[in-house]
Specification:
2 copies of one chain form a homodimer. Chain A folds into 2 domains: 3-171, NADH Oxidase (3-Layer(aba) Sandwich), CATH 3.40.109; 178-229, no CATH class. Chain A has 11 helices and 5 strands. Chain A has helices at residues 3-9, 24-35, 54-63, 84-92, 98-101, 104-127, 142-148, 178-181, 191-212, 221-230, 237-243, and strands at 46-51, 75-82, 131-135, 155-164, 182-184. A 4-stranded antiparallel sheet of chain A has the order 1-2-4-3, with helices on both faces. In chain A, helix 2 (24-35) packs across helix 6. The longest helix of chain A has 24 residues, at 104-127. The interface between A and B is large, with 117 and 117 residues.
């Protein structure tokens, strides 16, 4: 196993960082790593906002539900789907790009582009001995995030990425069984088989939590999922992204 | 610069592979690398289909617009947004998960999860000396792809990933100017500044193409974008993803 794969397999989210800030050169390395990712038809449909302003970081932490590591870290990035510059290009080159820009296809392209870029930054950071945590919590209120970061139309903030020097290590969290996620030639959707695999996985996840909480937390994966998904979360999202000019047709 | 960052910055899409197939162990390393990526609230909302069947690969190549490297490679993956197992979990645990599963928020989560996973697989592959190419072309006809791979409801194929031993090297393609993609504390959307940056970028991109085609191709980035976006491409996507039970509310 080479060092890169070791880094990748050793990933765990870090939720407590030392006070030390990233240097501008480290930030540049991470952003350039992000930019090196593949991009659909060269579209590069994303932007990255780095937040240094402490007050803005505090506000983002509050939006994310009071996650202190959104404010306290080495650097905080917000990855955004971005077709704003593409709209401008349409104006400059007199092309009717709006129906395309507003399509669900291009919404998907922008999300995938941004996520590929972010994961490059995440892996690059971890290879440098830094820790990372994705922050979906900023999606609690994207109206507020957009105002805070001065985002124009055609830009949708997707998630944050907190990066910094780890102050508290965590453990690698067990993933779904290999055969449950990876199918060959044809999707295997037999319910009995699926249930059996998930029952086994539940035991692994339960042990993981029990071991780490002195037996206090006994949570299964399916139980966690059912609970989370029963909760109707961020149901304003459709309206928000359409309002920003994405995912409309 | 460490080896991981070197791998990341050296990325280029490979469109011609040697005939040699990946071993099952290599495939497993790539899938496990994919699974190690961060996942929103532990949801793991994706599946990966590995295609070995030569006939299916030929059909996928045709769907992708006749891209031969979809059929001829070391291995071909299809990454899918997947909330099928989560729907089943709702049934088993008697939770009303459907409104949540059908939300735009969870559509975004599934796309981002799948893309983070894919990029881990891509970086892992490149660290092993393999080449990769993302294949958005499968989105030309996701009805056909879904049938071919036997995908149930709540599963949307997003893109392919061709992996293999490079037979023809390409060059690293120049990315958008750093300051155009990376903003600090506030999005910089001054049109004059943007135009200036893109004019400079156009010159870099034009030189890149000219050098590689003996002066035959003189294409600017903004010209390419305007042309691509004027073309209304894959406008069936909204209907397709809604039909699969995503992005509905």
């Amino acid at each position: 196993m080479n060092a890169t794969i070791e880094t990748i397999l050793n990933h765990k989210s870090i939720r407590k960082f030392k006070e030390k800030k990233l240097t501008d050169q480290q930030i540049e390395t991470l952003v350039k790593s992000a930019q090196a990712a593949s991009t659909s038809s060269y579209i590069q449909a994303y932007s990255i906002i780095g937040v240094k302003d402490e007050q803005k970081k505090e506000q983002l932490a509050e939006i994310a539900g009071g996650q202190s590591y959104v404010a306290n870290n080495g650097h905080f990035f917000v990855f955004c789907a971005d077709l704003y510059r593409h709209e401008k290009i349409g104006e400059w080159e007199s092309g009717d790009v709006i129906p395309s820009i507003e399509s669900t296809e291009k919404f998907m392209v922008a999300l995938i582009d941004a996520a590929l870029a972010a994961q490059n930054a995440a892996v690059a950071a971890e290879s440098m001995g830094l820790g990372i945590c994705y922050i979906g919590g900023i999606r609690n209120d994207l109206y507020a995030v957009s105002e805070l970061l001065n985002l124009p139309e055609r830009v949708v903030p997707l998630f944050g990425l907190a990066v910094g020097y780890p102050d508290k290590e965590t453990d690698v969290k067990p993933r779904l069984p290999y055969r449950h996620v990876y199918h060959e030639d044809s999707y295997q959707s037999q319910e009995v088989e699926m249930k059996k695999e998930l029952d086994e996985y539940n035991e692994i996840v339960s042990s993981y939590y029990k071991e780490r909480t002195n037996g206090k937390r006994s949570d299964s994966w399916t139980g966690q999922m059912a609970k989370m998904l029963t909760n109707r979360h961020r149901m304003y999202m459709k309206e928000f992204v359409e309002g920003k000019g994405f995912n409309k047709r």
